[in-house]
What does this fold into?
Amino acid sequence: MAEKMELNDIEVWDGNYAASQALRQAQVDVVSAYPITPSTPIVESYGAYVANGYVDGEFVMVESEHAAMSGCIGAAAAGGRVATATSSQGFMLMIEVLYQASGMRLPIVLTVVNRAVASPLNVRGDHGDMYAGRDSGWVQIDAFNAQEAYDLTLCAFKIGEDMDVRLPVMVHQDGFVTSHTAQNVKPLQDDVAYNFIGKYQPYEEMLDFTKAVTYGAQTEEDWHYEHKAKQHKALMDSRDVIDRVFAEYKELTGREYNRVEKYFMDDAEVAIVALGSAVETARYAAEELRAEGIKAGVVAPRCFRPFAFDGIREALENVKAVSALDRSCPMGAMGTLFNEVSAALYTNDKRPIISNYIYGLGGRDFSVAEAKRIFKEQKAHADAGHLTTPIQQFSGLRGPKLGFFETKRGN
Amino acid sequence: MAITSIKNLKEFSTANERFEGAHLLCPGCAHSMIVRELMNCTDDNLVIASNTGCLEVSTAVYPYTSWDTSWIHIGFENAATAASGAEAMYKARKRKGTLKDPDAPVKFVAFGGDGSTYDIGFQWLSGAVERGHDFTYICLDNENYANTGGQRSSASPIGANTTTAQAGRFSYGKKEKKKDMVAIMAAHGAPYVAQLAPNKWKIMAKGFQKALETEGPCFINTVSACTTEWKFDPKDTIHVTDLATDTLMFPIYEIIDGHELNILYRPKNIIPVEEYLASQGRYKHLFKPENKHVIERIQKDIDAKWEYLQRREEARV
It folds into this structure.
């Protein structure tokens, strides 16, 4: 039996430590992992729990991230709770197996500390890795601070392991800004946290020999399509379970989570849509601009996947101008978040003016001043009744201003 | 039916059928003989992981499966890691008391072809063996990427004609020596490593049993004659394998704890390698006068290896 850890009502934890504590409290059966900056402290902390008897599961330190996720798959198919952590290049190396995990419907939890993807090599935070996972069939939940990294990692187990879901879940947090910034975090006591998640329920497990199971079969054009469609449906249907788990978590802790997080959106005229720690920066900026008379608001997809197409549409239908912020280089297209948000808005009669900002690549700081400037630009679009800038711009970039695509409406 | 001893082939081959006859492997493929023998040589529960390859694509095409046991395939390279993960889960659940039948003996086995073992999955295998998981890895070595049509692998021998190291007017086929995987795995300090062949089925079954019974990571390289890419008549699989073991192209031996080498089969009459080479279309070009030196080289390498194995066995180091 693993020893319990006495926790204070308020602990000072960074995002990495918060995530590691959630893994410990979940009493994961197998952690199969490979360290990489900036998520390394998650597995180091976990190693300390193992060494000191706070965990009685297996801790398998493998030789690469591809192997880390491969080990997670083998372990999960053997019928127990499984988790790991990674970032950036490690995430990229894992990608092949991420698809296998979701295709086999294995509820693995992966804590992703977002980091830029080389080349050039960069250890700082951006969302290049998170975006690379978007078609992998995982639930992708985004934490904006250390408290959320803790809360949402606990929720991730409950969501993924739900018998109506049985899908792997990623919990994202921003590299360094969240992972290495110590904040006040209110943890649950061990029993409370474990009971919230509940005991792992094995399903079609390889260690029950009363029934043979085959994992990872081949399907060609006769069945592959049906399997993938079913997987997509499972991910879509996970929305209800996510809502239910968030409601239960609120009941337990008072902390509220929604698939679309809205801030000052009741009467907002201009809005920013963003992911990650930038959400908090944008919220702070919105609050300050409210004092200046600009009705600014912030919308944040708490779930990057399944994407809340309807929730985003509903949240933004009454604004005049909105900018979707992407912390990943779009490489020859509009940013992913811009595309997702635009698509949602296009299906509505009311379509706000929308633009796209790329920002914060490779850990470039995203400041309150920058967020305020973007809000003010939205205000200028709103007042003019059309875009006054190119549709896609780069915020905080040195050198000549970059902008792409002009609007064909409103002029 | 329980296997308590390996008496005769007929009895052995009808025992404990957990690898079903229905599969899509080529007629004459040695893979199924090796896999069936592994599964027949134990009564313990089996968790089997397979790398992508001929065996995997031929035995688990939805909605069918040939595996009447727990079986998993993830990717080309990671069966050893899948087995590692499952074995770790077994240990964790046994400790925590969450197994359905905690007393039932379980063995973890991974299968890979030479493509996934010698090449693309080399790192995953090395990692799993270094970590000391209690599992047995069996390489079905047919010396080429047979599943994708006969490309070279680092297990392909010198002189073999493969689609990516072709014999032609300016080439005698593969130029490089076969990687010595058995030595590499022994150098990991694995407690049991062996090279076995399905024509010597009693020796093979005993080797499999030894590996399964040995705690820790065991590695077995099995010779799997490939009718399609070696180019011989499907009825000749065992004949070709006999030539492989009796020319010493594939010596049968084991290495215990990384150093104790035992030769498990000594041919009464060692056959010159020409006979083995002549039995397969992939070596046809070597019988042209300009390629005579390649055959000489192959024979020289075989002789040197046999000498080395005998001296290692004698030296007990």
About this structure: The radius of gyration of chain B is 19 Å. Strands of chain B lie at 45-50, 70-73, 106-113, 136-141, 167-168, 171-172, 192-196, 218-223, 253-256, 260-263.
